[in-house]
Amino acid sequence: MYTVYIDELFLLNTALNYILLLLTRRVVRLKASWPRLLLGSVIGAVYAVFMFLPHNKLFYTFFAKFIFSLLLVAVTYNIKKPKQYVKAVAVFYMISFAFGGAAYSLISLTGRSGDYTPLRILALSTTIAYVCIMLLSSYCRRLYLKEKCTSIVNITLNGKSAAVNCYMDTGNNLYDPVSDSPVMIVEHKSISSILPSELGEYYKQGTLDALPVCAGRKIRLIPYSSIGKKSGFILGFKPDSVAIEGKQISDIVIGLCENELSTDNSYAALLNPCALGGII
Fold this sequence. Notes:
280 residues, 9-stranded mixed sheet, alpha+beta
């Protein structure tokens, strides 16, 4: 038989509730100050204390726990949109289950049993669950942003077309100095099938002398600067048309790049966000 001290139970639950509410805020991107998080943590700890008092059967029922969790999320985050509120409740439960699962796994691995969970196991399981949830949340967010900012672009030149995946890069601020059109950087190899053979000679020799005199108005030399290199030029051209997700971009210049733009080959072009202003 174990002796439960109310003060230790209260402090432990306050700390755990604070971590759960803090993680929920970070995952769902909610606004909640630390006093509100602390208030929610204390309220949750008070509920845990009431569960150990006489005549406490009501506090162990599913209905009571569910209603209390709804109130706890409402008090802590003060969410006004129903959809976001449901999302916060769902994430709060998932994080709680993850913490409980981590604790149960460590207890099983250490061969312990019973109703009492040693503090060191609880602390270790909390740390593991916290780190795993933060890493998973960060990965999912990066994946979501990458998918959200990635689109298929169709580039047409001299009656030939090529489709490439492009990434909307807010760091791409290149403009064609002749037409003042925004520039989309594209890997040379991804659209080599639609490029004139003269441009291939330029890439083989790497000098401006390799460009034909009759290259025409479509050829562009786009100045740029980057970290570690003060200045340089990107060879580009004015395409016949460019369409993103089926919508035409009326004003854009393609800049060619020899290097791979993505380490995982998820995209082969960097779109200047300003080019979206020319969608018709």
